[in-house]
Automatic annotation (TrEMBL):
Residues 12-21 have a biased composition (Basic and acidic residues). Coiled coil: none annotated. It catalyses: 9-ribosyl-trans-zeatin 5'-phosphate + H2O = trans-zeatin + D-ribose 5-phosphate; N(6)-(dimethylallyl)adenosine 5'-phosphate + H2O = N(6)-dimethylallyladenine + D-ribose 5-phosphate. Residues 1-46 are annotated as: Disordered. It comes from the Bacteria. Gene3D superfamilies: 3.40.50.450. Its EC number is 3.2.2.n1. Pfam families: Lysine_decarbox. Belongs to the LOG family. It comes from Saccharopolyspora rosea. This is Cytokinin riboside 5'-monophosphate phosphoribohydrolase. Keywords: Cytokinin biosynthesis, Hydrolase. The keyword Hydrolase applies.
């Protein structure tokens, strides 16, 4: 009898609960570690002897950068897509993610996601099934499993800030599907880096008007209205419900970038 894994891939056996710790997979009795690497780095409580281990942590951080750069150095032009890990497969947003991933792959773009379930899985699935390069950048979390099965090239990280660098360094555009705190964090970090010209002017697409319209209105009316941002800053955001429109925005921006390089 074939049994479905939690990820939905048949392999004839139940897929055990697992946890990613950087490149390491932990299952069964090894799941007991209650904290993550990020938490142990940032937590200042407890004995002070942890201070003396920080130089060694720097080497681990350096190794993560080297591993990420090495794995992604030859990736073709790519689009990073953010979105919720909690989007159910039966939800219309999941189907939209699959269509978006396939459409981006159809233009020759690789897609980069956080490699998890939900909207991330949908985009990876669409890209992989369409014959494109599907990339997942995972993170050690206490409550999520490893990379989804539609990731063709995957890298697992211990530290959020290393992973975020990879999201941005290897992308020519950012698309945000509906998501929670993590998606908001990634959205505003991307906007800040584009606004301050730390990265070349990439488009940032908010996909799903019903979900994003309230935030967009607040940014336009309150942030811009009070002078905290300007018209050029607001123009960095593109709000759409249409897959073809989102892909067109990405394509136009890339062609404009290519013309100047």
């Amino acid at each position: 009898m074939t049994v479905e894994r939690p990820w939905g891939t048949p392999d004839g056996a139940d897929h055990p609960q697992e946890k990613q710790r950087g490149p390491v997979v932990l299952r069964r009795s090894r799941l007991g570690e209650p904290t993550t690497t990020d938490q142990r780095l940032l937590d200042s409580r407890g004995p002070s002897d942890w201070v003396h281990t920080d130089p060694w942590r720097v080497l681990r951080i350096q190794a993560e950068f080297v591993e990420g750069f090495g794995a992604l150095a030859e990736v073709p032009r790519a689009v990073t897509v953010f979105g919720s890990a909690r989007t159910p497969r039966e939800h219309p947003e999941y189907a939209t993610g699959v269509r978006l991933g396939a459409a981006l792959a159809g233009t020759g773009c690789a897609v980069i996601t956080g490699g998890g379930p939900g909207a991330m899985e949908a985009v990876n699935r669409g890209a992989s099934e369409a014959g494109g390069l599907s990339i997942g950048l995972g993170i050690e979390l206490p409550f999520e499993q490893g990379l989804n099965p539609w990731v063709d090239l995957g890298v697992n990280f211990r530290y959020f800030f290393v992973r975020k660098t990879m999201f941005i360094k290897y992308a020519q555009a950012f698309v945000c599907l509906p998501g929670g705190f993590g998606t908001m964090d990634e959205l505003f970090e991307s906007l800040t880096l584009v606004q301050t010209k730390k990265v070349t002017k990439f488009p940032v697409v908010l996909f799903g008007r019903d979900y994003w319209q309230g935030l967009y209105d607040w940014i336009r009316d309150t942030m811009r209205g009070s002078g905290k941002i300007g018209d050029k800053d607001l123009a960095l955001l593109h709000l759409t419900d249409d897959v073809d429109d989102a892909v067109g925005i990405v394509q136009e921006a890339y062609e404009a970038w290519e013309a100047t390089h």
